[in-house]
Amino acid sequence: MNLVTCKLCGRLFSATRGKICVTCLDEIDDLYPKVREFLRDHSKEKYNVEQIANGMDLDIRYVQALVELGYLDRGVGADPEAEEEKRRKEALARQLQASLENSASTKLPETMGKMYGQQRYGTGKKK
Ligand SMILES: [Zn+2]
């Protein structure tokens, strides 16, 4: 297993999807709608990563991660609904992947249940 240090929280995790751990990816997923809302509220102004971080009182590294992961770059000025839909699908796919990886290493029944729930949620949302 290839362990790396998460660039956001500094914890060691098995590097399967880049340099950010699953926990932080979850937080970023959480953060994204809020940042987008913030940008929508301030659409008259141009915002960069630093200004978003300051304006929302966030850790700038998380805002940077949003950009690096492709959340923000296209989100700003693009059709928010289409972006949201696309992001959601990608996030679900990633969460599912993460759950599979988690359950493979821990084998907790709880994790299995959660994974199943996400799977059902994922297919249920699809039209
Ligand atoms: Zn992390």
Automatic annotation (TrEMBL):
Residues 100-127 are annotated as: Disordered. This is Flagellar operon protein (TIGR03826 family).
